[in-house]
Amino acid sequence: MSSEVNGHEILLRLEEAVVCFDEKAGVEICQLAINSGLDPGEILESGLAAGMTRAGELFNSQEYFVPELLRCSDAFEAALSILQPHITADSRKDKIKVIIGSMEGDLHEIGRKLVALMYESAGWTVSDLGCDVKLEKFLLEIAKTNPDVVALSSLMTSSMQNMPRFIQEIKDIKPEVVIMVGGAPMNPDIAQDYGADGYAGNCGVAVSETEVAIDRVLKASTADRGGPGRHMVKAL
Amino acid sequence: MRPAARLTALINGEPLDRVPFTPFILGFSARNVGLSLASFYSDPEKSYQASLLTQQQYCCDNRPAFGYADYGAWEFGGEAKFPDSPNEQSIMVLRRPISTEEEAWKLSLPDVRTAGYLPTQMAFTRVQIKYTGRASSPSMTPFCTAVSLVGEETFCRWMLTKPELCHHLLLLVTQHRKQVIQHWVDTFGVTNLRVEQSTGPESNDVISPQQFEEFALPYMLDLHQWILDLGIRSIYCHICGDHNLNLPHWEKVAFGDPGMMTFGNQVDLDEAITRFGEKAIIFGNLEPPLILHGPPEKIYEETRKCLEKGKQAPRGYVMTSGCEVPVDTPPYHMWVINKAISDFGWYE
Q1: Do the Cβ atoms of B292 and A157 come within 8 Å?
Q2: A27, A31, A37: which is closest to A6 by C-alpha?
Q3: Closest by Cβ to A156, choosing from B89, B153, B245
Q4: B28: closest CA among A157, A174, A57, A86?
Q5: B295 preceded by cis ω (within 30°)?
Q6: Contact yes or no for B97/B155 (Cβ under 8 A)
Q7: How many whole angstroms separate alpha carbon A81 and alpha carbon A40?
Q8: Residue of A20, A72, A128, A157 to mutate when probing chain B, most B C-beta within 10 A
């Protein structure tokens, strides 16, 4: 009982270090958690990811803004660098795989990076293709990594207009992939018109909205074909 | 009323026939007349004509404008390029002048006669004077310019980790803005010069109202008072994005008599009019993605709503887009806005 309580306390302190963007404390407490024999997956989920989830909630309620979220991500990444060597490939094998990138012609970074971080903090495997990503690069990465989700980001009306074409071409080669879109000029109506499976208004809701979209696509494909995407049921 | 007369009457508080219409059309104008975006941003005469013809086509009341959103990086020694693909809508920064703290501390003021895009903007202003006798200054707030020097992500981090460095950059760019405006005043005088400001990352989409108060507001207060002390009558400020939590701070800023404040669709026009309507002409605030995507009936209805609210503004109201009209906006959508103004924009 005492060690369980201690373990729980350590994870709470780790969560707090992320929320308070205390990089030094995050690294020290993460090391303490490892030395205490806590499971690395649990340290990630109940310590670090829990911290980022709370940070996301604070962002949604406009108590935190982009500067705070960036600093929380710094604390998260610093602690994760200590934890990473202890996380085995097996513990990630059933996790959702995401490709994310900013649309061709779009050089904006912050929003996409924060969304990628929230996906990562949820324990998903993220391949961030960066900004100004051509369709061909998305398609190559899809062929290479076989993702469950492709997330397209656009902060400009000029670059967002390519989304319907990108979405169609991606769906042509991988119909069951879940396509999420986001960015300042986007909204749910436009996302639907473009053929996307889901829309996230900001990084704070990226994970939850993606899960909703995955669930929706899963139900649709199960109703249609009775099969694809079973591994995503397990991951969720 | 002719457009120039309509705007003059508005500024002087005289009766108008209808609500003026001044959409923010840059790249849209270029596309409309078949001019490349690169030419639009590099050739002031062609740019002016493209905007003028488009404004005449859509019964606009504004005069052609010129500028780009990521001002600062190029002017302080970074690199930029003109748009050269269909996915690009404006001048794009390729390299920012600052990548380390040391570089930030050592950054010096550029020569406003030769820096970055300023010579081209000066040439454009000369074209404005040639055709209208009136001029507009280059626009960007100190906060926006400071962010451009180093990039939004780094500046956001520095606000929490190195606030003194942010203040150093903000002081520097405020001095730069004063030098730019002084250069325009020395060249064109104050009587027919409108000083313009454009915001960007100081919205609550990025920073908190506390951060706005600490990092954006002091420099805006200083700069605006300095501008008004020169004898400039009005400051035109494009307040882009969600500024709802910043509105109490904006109330402290002087804009002249009358001021001119444009709001994005994120700020309700009723709120803007309540807070600022006694001291400023209110502009706004049709959502650009709506203008691009439609449907037309929603564009018409949202324009009607803006007009209904805006006509209550005590110092006057101007119908405009909340930010730049997207380059590929269907012409019919612009006509729909015209139709709504024609149906609902007249004063009794």
Answers
A1: yes
A2: A37
A3: B89
A4: A157
A5: yes
A6: no
A7: 12
A8: A157
pLDDT at residue number B88: 83
Q: Is A185 on the interface with B (CB under 8 A)?
A: yes
Q: Tell me the CA distances in angstroms from B110 to B51, B59, B97, B118, B174, one per residue in order.
A: 30, 39, 12, 11, 13
CA-CA distance, A84 to A48, in Å (whole number)? 12
Q: How close A109 gets to chain B, by Cα (Å)?
A: 8
Closest-approach residue (CA) in chain B for A23: B161
The residue with tokens 């997330």 is A151
C-alpha span between A18 and A48 (Å, rounded): 7
pLDDT tens for residues B42-54? 999 999 999 999 9
Min Cα distance B332 → chain A (Å) is 18
Contact list, A163 vs chain B (CB under 8 Å)? none
Contact B211 A65 (CB under 8 A): yes
| Chain A partners within 8 Å of B326 (Cβ) | 157-158
When scoring B70, B84, B88, B211 by the number of chain A Cβ atoms within 10 A, the one with the most, hence best to mutate, is B88
How many Å apart are CA A98 and CA A213, to the nearest integer? 13
3-state secondary structure (DSSP) of residue A21: coil
Give strand ranges (E) for A158-236.
178-182, 198-200
Residue A150: HSE in the Cβ half-sphere, 13 Å Cα cutoff: 30
How near does any CA of chain A get to the CA of B240, in Å? Answer: 12
Task: Report mean pLDDT in 10-residue bins for chain B, 348 residues.
Answer: 90 95 95 95 96 95 88 96 86 95 97 97 96 91 97 97 98 98 96 92 96 98 97 95 97 97 96 98 96 96 98 97 94 97 95
Name which of A1-15, A142-156, B158-172 the model is least confident about.
Answer: A1-15
The 10 Å CB-count burial string (b at 16+, else e) for A57-81 is: ebbeeeebbbbbbbbbbbbbbbbbe
| pLDDT above 50: residue A156 | yes
Alpha helices in A39-153 (DSSP H): 40-42, 50-60, 66-83, 110-121, 135-145
The single-letter DSSP state of residue B201 is T
> How many angstroms away from the CA of B133 is the closest CA of chain A?
33
A70 touches chain B (CB under 8 A): yes
Residue in B161, B211, B326 closest to A157 by CB: B326
Torsion of CA B290, B295, B300, B305, to 10 degrees: -50
Nearest CA in chain B to A63: B208
Q: How far is B157 from chain A (nearest CA, A)?
A: 6
The encoded tokens of residue A170 equal: 């991606």
How much is the CA Rg of chain A, to the nearest whole Å? 18
* pLDDT of amino acid A223: 74
Which residues of chain A neighbour B89 with C-beta distances below 8 Å? 156-158
Model confidence at A233, in pLDDT bands (50, 70, 90)? Answer: very low
Would you say the pTM of this structure is higher than 0.90? yes
**pLDDT at position B348:** 84
What mean pLDDT, rounded, does chain A reach? 90
A158 shares contact with chain B (CB less than 8 Å): yes
